[in-house]
Amino acid sequence: MIFVLYALIGTFAGFSAGLFGIGGGLIIVPALLPLFAYKAVDPAVSVHLAIGTSLATIVVTALSSIRAHHKKGNVDWAVFKQFGLGLALGAVVGGVTADLTPGPWLKLAFAGFTWAMAARLLLAAAPVATRALPRAPYVVGAGSAIGWISSLFGIGGGAMSVPYLIHHNVDAKRAVGTSAAGGLPIALMGAGTYLVAGWGTPGLPEWSWGYIYLPAFASIVLLSIPFAQLGANVASALSSRMIKRIFAGFLLVVGAVLMVTG
């Protein structure tokens, strides 16, 4: 039965990623926590396990996304070389930071992050191109900050990468494609760090590779990719304003639930 629930998470995460244009980590992590509680996973490691598992699923979805965007010529590989390096470095630091952070604190931080994301969706105007990309060290630095936050909370980073790139005069479509490509170094380095940091940690359930729970990973990936396409199709029928409001409302509820159960 629990494998069906994992698959349903993949369905909802994929559909939401396609519908809202934001990585499935914001869905996967909160959804896994009550299932891990049901399985009596030690609360000291359950949040780390949910985040590490989320990052592992993003490796697969990012590969699919990169392929699609590259075919359309929407990945700026010159920008990616600098930005992706920063994302990878930051993802490692984010994984180490998470390992050093107690589970309950990490859950509350995740809840605060969901509220911040909701506020940004509701209040922030669309990013405007106002300046050129800075020199390489600054691009790497920005990528490192985004990679750190993304790995810390198990997300792909698109919600931060896209506005940054557009603000620095990268064409909107190429900003989305380059951000999608950036999800791969975040996920690879982040998941790898969670795997190594969690290896041998007491309290992890059977079939865990460090902080990656393989049964949940496999079940989520199985359905997340096809349902992402369905979500993208539905998104084309809704206004961007409506999509933002729906997702912001969802994030507010998720943050509230995490705060109460933290």
Automatic annotation (TrEMBL):
Keyword Hydrolase assigned: no
GO cellular component: plasma membrane
The entry's keywords: Cell membrane, Membrane, Transmembrane, Transmembrane helix
Annotated compartments: Cell membrane; Membrane
Keyword Cell membrane attributed: yes
Broad class of where this protein is predominantly found: membrane
Signal peptide: none
Source superkingdom: Bacteria
InterPro entries: TM_pro_TauE-like (IPR002781)
Membrane spanning stretches: 6-33, 45-66, 78-98, 105-125, 145-166, 178-197, 209-230, 242-261
A Pfam cross-reference name: TauE
Membrane topology: Multi-pass membrane protein
PANTHER family: MEMBRANE TRANSPORTER PROTEIN HI_0806-RELATED
Family: Belongs to the 4-toluene sulfonate uptake permease (TSUP) (TC 2.A.102) family.
UniProt name for this protein: Probable membrane transporter protein
